[in-house]
């Protein structure tokens, strides 16, 4: 007896192509935006207009931050292997791990671990206080930013859009409360960073927690294509390589 | 004197974040869709509504085709290394090369090589005939489909959207002409496939030819996140692995 | 003032190339084996003959296990993108994460966490008993194998080579003790698996714990090249893809 | 009827593990060096001692060249995603494409295209002259080096080892002849570079031409592990990132 691999995603017959149970050509192409489609593919439900707006705001917030390590990596890989655009993009995405892109996922999971254990009516400030006290000296994901020390401009904007669309759920609520009460516990005031707020928003949108990092990577794919397009017009990768090369000093190995 | 690396993409100061010369939080987030933003990042110009619609139709056409090799690769990699979503997505994208995702780029480039050498007024059928004759027995990128032998449903839909938006340019025009005249040269009728039509449409949208494969990869990133989300809900990767494993026969090496 | 990036690895002048402080052409090429060189690069000290033998035995133990997910991934990626050998190898390596290749690293780290807290004279059986009791119901890395239930043939061979070369250090000693005493704690007898023993041996060789997974990946790179060479002579990737494709069933999405 | 996937590589039963038709634990581990094993996996025949020596000399020649783009990429990716050693190594390998690591493969293929069309007795100088004349203004793979303008030290060493081992075959012979006669055709003297000589040597060793780049990548994997080990001891990746970041100038996009 053969195994059967089930999927509700793309499927083809000689005369038809379906995607998510829709006729791809007639119902999806020309009618569904790309952010909407990405949400739909991940959840298998069509988002509302408001959900799409908040989701696309998150993607915009994460798409590009200039010459980050991932952008440099994509440009250097394209310099070395211009025959493989897929390799340059993949190499850049591989930097999307715990340190530079991971805050979004870490924050979403951290909030969810709390949210999934509390019951209404919610006193978010009290819950936040207890959470912060339990956390002790451990880092709070999403709290603090090494550049935007007085506030990350993306954070209030994401809260504003979520409010306009009626999408402030428990994760954003708890995160806002952490923003209000943490000075009482930590003795200093830190900004809620944008990457963390993105994680809270994605969790409130019901996207799978295991894949929150994936949405940051989707956003970053668009950004990395932008980096490659700019590299084609105004190359800098070789200059970056040469600046490293010319500042290299050969030293003796540990043991000779 | 220090090197200066210029970029018009993301930039930050302690109080502001800009992207493409815009205030990211105020002007981009909440106002710009994700497909629109991806186009903007690649070209550094804001697309029109019609351009965005055609671009997003192309992305929808390429996002997912079920259990393709790239989808299987992403699922198997996630099975092996569930700690690294970025690795699973990158592995899937690495299959986006010459055979399975390359038609889009090959077709766009093939058409552009012709388009860039002809001058108005254009007699596309005559140009197509000459192109096909010069090509001899070499493969025409975008012509033929191993499943949709009577026509790829995405192709007429893309032409329809391009017409509705006034975006049928020289690449789509030449491709359509190839569709009309190739039986005279080849002695048989083949469909214009969807992936090739996507390449023609992306070239008419003015996107960089070197990166046409990149847009297929962007679309596929959304598809692969959908594959991972489905794998989380209804896993099949281990079953695929076991079906290979249980059908393996150990044979003697070439020389023992 | 310029930054200076120091390295003891490769360096060039117009007339010389050095590696690890040696003249590459005269001193390394033709004189140093590849396993020896890999060890030297990682530690910046030349291994003894015995260390090289044990290290290469570990690499042999991990190089290839037939149609594992990583091997299937490399073959499928090469099918999709035959223009990029680097992409096919990279995709396969990306499966080298926590589940399929991670035991080597996990076991090495687990043993090291214990070894670094005890002082001579060592009563390894007592230390192992205490370690296993403290671990409670948590998994012991390196203990058990889903196929080799009566013993992994690589395990006694690695211990034998380490003994022959006088290289049984605290990690292998503790692992052997775990093999002896765990039935008292777990109430059942499990084999010490080969991947875990490799981790213990690599740790005893003084290789950096953060990179134990890297050596498994080096071994696997050789294995994946073997997989690609076999795929070139006797292709199976397309058959694997078709067997998945032909066993696919399209189902309704979660919400329609 | 089930498909059968054949392999002569790794295979397991509950009590045995075989590799290349050998008992892995008894016959391979402890007896076969890692370079020897990599050759064996790729060709399914055990190399002679001389073949192993030449092969390992090639791997040593290609393992590391200091802060190349691939090394920088691996270090930056590890900085961003220290949780995924496999991602850092894979990202570095993805730069192993046409420009930085491709010479080895290009040269091997170029020579083979000629070698496969000539018959004994061979007048290599005459064949080389004809080859160079036919090539016209096209680049000769393996000829010239941007740093080692007076000669790449690896080249004479590889020829010496091949001669000592009786392994100078048609590819190395033709390449040497190109080195002798090219000034007559090109009107200037260029060195035979080491990467190209490696390609000629690998081709003479009978390794598959489609995978010559793969052996460069295997060598580089060892080098990249060395880079990561050095990065752990003496980190520079963040400094490289900051030197780019601090030399960045934000400019207006193409169209505002």
TrEMBL record, chains A, B, C, D:
One of its GO terms (cellular component) is cytosol. The keyword Transferase applies. It holds the Pfam family Citrate_synt. Its EC number is 2.3.3.16. GO terms for molecular function: citrate synthase activity. InterPro entries: Citrate_synth-like_lrg_a-sub, Citrate_synth-like_sm_a-sub, Citrate_synthase, Citrate_synthase_sf. It comes from the Bacteria. Pathway: Carbohydrate metabolism; tricarboxylic acid cycle. Keywords: Transferase. Coiled coil: none annotated. The keyword Transferase applies. CDD domains: CCL_ACL-C. GO terms for biological process: carbohydrate metabolic process; tricarboxylic acid cycle. Belongs to the citrate synthase family. This is citrate synthase (unknown stereospecificity). It comes from Lentzea aerocolonigenes.
